[in-house]
Amino acid sequence: MTIAGERLEVAVFKPASCQIRSILIVLAGKNRDSTTYRNDSVPLAKHECSLVFAPDFPVARFPVDQYQRGGFPAVHHTAPAALYMRPLEQWTRSISNERNIPIILIGHSAGAQYLERVAAYAPGEEIMTVIMNPSTYVEPETDTPVPYGFRNWSQPAGLPDLKRYLARNIAIILGSDDTEPSPLINRIPAAVEQGRNRLERGQWAYAQAREQAEKLNVPFGWTITLVPATGHVASRMLASSEVQDAIETAIRAASSP
């Protein structure tokens, strides 16, 4: 597919002999091995009778600032990569001819960081975003600057989009053993404030968001779940009953009258 002049390859899987229930858009980790992520998503797709689209964002064209940080703060003449998600969703509907089924976004590690920026700054029509083991989060407050918070965001004080972010259906799913330190991430002050490792940062982000939602008196749409005896391994996360349950719950909710 082509978005904003960028041609992206997309690995696809379609289960046979069942009525398609959802579209799963799966974002790969820092190695951008989208085909591997597509393959690792096949059991989940078969169980939920869902299409998988795994777009490839090559490192050469989408370095850390564009992928993990979503392209924010925006650089002049460069479209933030997080803005690609909405047209990508529309393309998956067009290419599959599935106009009405729900779309669910799933990301692990670097891909989860990308989806964090999508959820905060550039959401599309997805009914749920599954965030698995990212190294950083967008803090739901206006003291921390973009891309780790809402200070300097385009909306006045960032509050309208911040409130929308808190209300979105975001499923944080963490490996209970994902506790190794991240030396590169630990050089970023905003990330260090979020915790010593990915597990701590996820728990911290969820607690901060829940507290902020109560303070602002807005609906809170986030959930948090731990996958037992699992570290920073995408294949195990995608194969977990916790991810399967989250997807099933979202599809059923979207299908109910």
UniProtKB/TrEMBL annotation:
Cross-referenced InterPro entries: AB_hydrolase_fold (IPR029058)
Keywords for the protein's UniProt record, in alphabetical order: Hydrolase
One term of GO molecular function: hydrolase activity
PANTHER family: BLL0132 PROTEIN, PEPTIDASE S9 PROLYL OLIGOPEPTIDASE CATALYTIC DOMAIN-CONTAINING PROTEIN
Designated name of the protein: Hydrolase
Organism: Gluconobacter kanchanaburiensis NBRC 103587
